Queue: 4 jobs
Job 1
Amino acid sequence: MKRFCLDLTLEELKEWCRAKSVQSFRAGQIYGWLSSGVTDTEGMTNVPKNVRAMLEEDFIFGEFKVLEKYVSAIDGTTKFVFRLHDGNIIETVVMRYKTGLSVCISSQAGCKMGCEFCASAKAGFGRSLTSGELLAQVLVSGKLMGERIRSIVVMGIGEPFDNYDNITGFIGLVTDPDGFGLGARHITISTCGLVPKIREFAALKSQVNLAVSLHAPNDEIRLKIMPVAKAYPMEELLAACHEYTSITGRRITYEYSLFAGVNDSVRCAEELAGKLKGELCHVNLIAANEFPGSAFRRSPSKSVAAFRKRLEELGINATLRREMGTDIMAACGQLRRGMEQS
């Protein structure tokens, strides 16, 4: 089976050149084009046609296509809908901050986690993305925007740690100083709480940021909205997170979407603060984003403010995430797999 062109490391391209009796310096040229977001051989203007033909024969090129582009009238957030070479569809979101462009990428075409409040869970599962398909979202989005991507959040469609090997491969590719060369501290991986993979990731001692989708102060509430809680109760999850901070010395961000009448009471804030007291962490509150067919409604702003205030009174650092792209269904929890839901 052919590999996608952006799955290739520089060393693999060098080996390919050796096997094909192609001059070794061509590997660097090809890798340079790929790292700049060129995913078709026609754009590789300094590579001979016969070498380009050999590349096309051995690898997948020109198949990372933009189906749709949506731009928010509110804040300029841009959502790209990409079709992969096998017909699977994913969504990628580019946001502008004072520090530059940030991209929210998908790790899978669909999601198996089944979180009740997330649109991605309602559209079925296709497959996990390769390391190169993760990278392509960064490179192609930046190329289309005409500007370098400055930070990455792996918080789009899918559960990153359900695609662990490709996630770690992607980190290697995107941080490669001979390639895109992004610093690891500018990358954030978000997981719904796959405990074994949190421990495995901790062992890497990576500088990549870790975010954990908590969304509840206890197992009773979490079980109602996140099926993963059946496999990994909160006590086990928080123990793994404690291990992570102990091993890496890095702070964890806990994502907490606030749903009206579900998890947004002051009592919930107090219970959450009790669970996180003394931990190296930060709570990122999200005024939950609604989508058609969802039974969940966002918390009133008054409840959000009271929840945050109580957390801070109890010594837990908390911020309210800035909403972006809500008018184009590009906000947290709104991404879908498939054009029919876009």
Job 2
Amino acid sequence: MDRAVAGIRPPFIDQDPKTSKLFNAEHKPLGFDLQSWLAATGTVSITEKDGKVTLEATFKNLQPNASYSLFENHFDTKPISFTPMDGAGKTNSFTAKADGTGSVTVTLPSMPTHNNAILVIYNSGGQPHGMERGRIGVDAHHQIIPRPE
């Protein structure tokens, strides 16, 4: 794992001012503040019909025109592991619109279990990383875990 620049730390949500500018682990500005980061929300719907599992996700308050990817967070593995929601890293990513909204529909390889979660990754490098999440804290950042409806 990449090492963070000395003095760089994740924000303390209850202590840091919401106007605090955010940086990656290499001290490069992300271009927005903590309030903007925390404003992102989303919902996910997962349906199964005729053996096909489909995930539909919608988001708001994302970074405009930014790249995002959906990964499955496997809490049931040791260590915790992550896989692209589509299983192949080809259709699990999307670009937010200029107004910060975004949506994606993904065919899943199987129904997620209650031991796992859907994870939205902000790709600060501007593009997804396929089967990998990217360099966490450098060009990929865990942002939200939307609740399935």
Job 3
Amino acid sequence: MTPTPLDPALRARLAEIAVPTLTAALYARGIRNSFLAGLAPLSKAHARFVGTAYTMRALPVREDLLAAVNEGKAPNLHRRAMAEVAPGEVVVTDCGASGRISFFGELIATFLARKGVAAIVTDAGIADVGDVAATGLPVFCLGSAPIPGPARRLVGDLGCPVDCMGVTIMPGDVLVGDENGVAAIPRAMAAEIADAAQAKAELEEFLLARLKDGAPLDGTYPPDAATLAAYAARKG
């Protein structure tokens, strides 16, 4: 798998926009299922990230397939993923929202952080939550689960479309995380969404200032023609 790096300028722009603003911009453009509801950051201090999706799909364990991996007769796709994921990418899992297992702990998180991986976004748990949070790697998960993934799931495919918390993620999609959670942006729409979300954020900053100054809610939010005219005048 050859990753296509995200344009640094686009990455920097997305990093300044809050996730709720991005999901609102996506919703307005027909992408109504973009928020990975249920996942939370291990550390709010290390929640902000922007990266492209490197996907892993884990199936319910079947004993003969697990035995083949353990005996070296079949590839260990979890290990392959850790080797393949590139700097700037986000490891995204499809584990069937199995919150009682984990595929990541302190050692792997440390390795990925040193490698320059942007984040882990997993619909499973995490082992060693305190130690993983201390690595500084942004991690979004279903909570603490110090039980190895193969107890229930076996990585069966890499670089494929996945379902993470009910959201379809394609390899290379752009993921943005902050303390609100994670938004998934179709790669082809990333620049358009950045433009729209940035414009929305600037307008809302203006509206917020007016509300703080005592403006009535009606006519301010949502803005009426007079408020929009005042905003346009301010922008020049």
Job 4
Amino acid sequence: MANDEALPALRPLEITPFRNAQNEVHFALQDRLDISPAPVAVSAAGYFILSCLNGEHTRLDIQTAFARRFGQMIRAAQIDELVRVLDEALLLDNERFVRAYAERRDVYLAAPARDNRAGWPSATALREQLTGILADGIAAPTEDLRGIIAPHLDNERGAPCYADAYATLAAAPPADRYVVLGTNHFGRAASAVATRQDFQTPLGLVPTDRDFINLLEQRLGLPLCEYELDHAVEHSIELQVHLLQVCASGRPFQIVPILCPDPCLDLAAGDAQRGLDGLGAGLAGLLAETREGTIIIAGADLSHVGQRFGDEEPTTQEFMDGVARHDRHLTSLLGDRQERAFLDALRATSNHTRVCSAGCLYTTLRALPDQPCRILGYHQAANFEAETNVTCMAAAIGR
């Protein structure tokens, strides 16, 4: 490969800093799509090279940037070696990864259902945990509940907001169908993506409403399942399904699982927002025609702050108080049904607290026009020692 040829882009990955035995900072690369055959870790210098792998930079570009940053030259052979390791681990967005992705997708589609039971406790333990969480919830009186907003944090950290959101849902008339909008954290799709696979959980099998997905695709004039492998290991919908199963207490229901992109993420954000506008309008129109017992659920977290997520300074309570003020401003915009202003506020700050669920929050409100949104709760799951702090909310949408 010539020095003036662009190197392939790094795939979306979860990158976690750690210290080795020599107390040097390294970075572990985790493939949340679970396609990579082996774990990879890089040094601080390697991490800098990763930040340059956007599909546009050449070796010479990286050498120049590296010299500016570190005051020394890096050899082209060193860059090539890191690219080779990443390629073998299927961490680059190139043809080799595309083939591996297609093979894994075929396996996913051939399976009887999306089945992640191995990653969860037994049915008894999971039901007991969720029942305990829901027992602490306060239901908001709602005559016609049309939607809820709940976290997608793990059950323990998200418990306060899960409790209020799902207590409200449990108190409402039972629905036959739940459109569950989640966050596509690390998938390939740049637009909304559904899956037709049923969900097999420790609590049983939940069928997906394929007819509804077909009707939605017809209304949008677009395929929704091209990248449905993104659902295979994504947790933001799965967590809602567990809670729905507990709330339903054996009553049958169907789900419509859709992952949403981030409309604040990059230069393609405008296209993403337009796509979500279309999805929201499509859902609104389809629900008007097929209103029988449908509720929309947004599985949405808010800010992600702390050194674990890239902040330089150690977290303090004063800092978290500032995050709370920022979050409450954002949630007030949602509560006032100013969802466009909500996106504008995130973009105005370059989403500096890393709100991950703008897409599904925005789409949920666009799909339920003219319905009041009541904020039921706000929670900070803060871990100062681990430098991992995530915030979340609970809300009810309807009259």
